[in-house]
Write a structure and sequence with these properties.
Distance between the termini: 27 Å
Strand content: 15-25%
Shape: elongated
Radius of gyration: 24 Å
Number of domains: 3
Number of helices: 12
Bound molecules: N-carbamoyl-L-aspartate
Strand order of the largest sheet: 11-10-9-12-13
Oligomer: single chain
CATH class of the largest domain: Alpha Beta
CATH topology of the largest domain: Rossmann fold
Helix content: 25-40%
Amino acid sequence: MNSKFLKSGHIKIYKRENSKFWQMKIKLPKLKAIRSSTGTKILKYAENIALKKFSSLKKYNEIKIKNKSKNIYKKIHLVETEDLNKKEIEFILQEAIKFIKFNKKRIKKNNLLEGRTVFNLFFEDSTRTRTSFEVAAKRLGADLINVAVKDSSINKGETLLDTMTTINSMNPDVLIVRHPEEGISKKISMNVDASVINAGDGSHEHPTQALLDALTIKSRFKNFTKLKIAICGDILHSRVARSNIIILSKLGAKINVIGPKEWLPQNLNKLPVKVFTDMKKGLKNCNIVMMLRIQKERIVGKIMPNEKTYFKKYGLDYNKLQYAKKNAFVMHPGPMNRGVEIDSELADDVTRSLIQEQVAMGVAIRMACLDILIKNRDNVLSY
Ligand code: NCD
């Protein structure tokens, strides 16, 4: 038999012994193999026909999922909050609620994802998010592999997509990716068979952070439509701000964005927010004040504000909190710069600060996301 491999081993062009025509075999993971004649004797045309068919099958996100359960989120990746509609967000939050209870048990382990392999691929420093995904995966019984990408072959000139292809060949179920380049998770999702979760791509998006923030808010307030939420600080460089604006406004909350002029992106007017440079005006009637970290690592070659001056104008303390609604809550995705973005005592004040709750909700949200995406991959229908 004469055969020729084209792309990532999923597609094969070959000739049967007694046939004049090229045959194609396409086998994508979890899908039935497709075997058929390309109907041509010429290899070049046979390759084109097979490639066309292959690329139509590769659009995983468009593949229909068997809808036996009440599963509303039917995709196998989670890379952008832009892709989520209100119902899907509500479904993910609802699924996470069962894990909040589970995480309070004495024995915090089940076998929902036993035998599944999850990779943490962090190309940027992270303790909180990486650990949160690790705890989530392990509590569901999955095997989690932490790849210290900073020390890996990425430094030996191997391209990012090559590294992904190598890991893809180990048949992982989920790749969790944090990387400084915007849009990289989406690119990776189009090149691997595993589900991809964006754990932060540059200043672009951080979907699970916004989902965990929404879950934290939901645990305190029943109805998002009655809420006004302030997001304050370095909006320009913050993927957390961007994902939160999208998620919280889709849930019906009103958003005020507050920050120094130079840290307010130009395209804010395309988002459903009101923009302020003054904390007093921006915090008026807000139920939640979400503070952001100054993203020093993304502010290169520009002048950093003096920390004391910044705190005086934009740092949240008890005084400024009075501009918001009585009993308003404070949030911060961490890591915090105490005394710069937020007063240390206020950050630790459990009557006002939801910061520790955000961490707990993070594990529940990530458990729900891993569970939903892996189930969706299992249910991908064959053509
Ligand atoms: C955020 C991030 O990395 O985008 N942190 C996090 O996920 N724990 C916020 C930040 O670093 O400022």
